Amino acid sequence: MESPLLSDGLYHFRARIGGQEQEHAVDVLCLRLTCEECEDAHRLPEDAEGRLKPTSAFLRELAGRFEELGVTGCTPSIAYQLWLAAPGVLGDLKKNTSETPSAPTGSESTPSD
Fold first, then answer.
1. Of residues 105 and 113, which shows the higher confidence score?
2. Global pTM?
3. Using an 8 Å Cβ cutoff, are 63 and 42 in contact?
4. Quick one: how many helices (H) and strands (E) in the chain?
């Protein structure tokens, strides 16, 4: 049997920070889980359509958490853009890794602590 080909799960993006364009790569699962953990910590309010509404405190903290993941110079505006992108890039990872082994019985669709 042939071994599965696994994706590295990195989300590559460029950001203009201080007038300079910088390349970054963040693990997709760490990106998504970091967003969820920060959302939970801030208990974000929902709008009329049930979407979470970010607060400035949330975005400032999320920027700091992304700094810890290696996004040097992350601003709240960059954090907001990554927060918006996170669900889509996780979906892309799932779609593009058809050879990824299926999750063990009883596990969630995303890892938890």
1. 105
2. 0.80
3. no
4. 3, 2
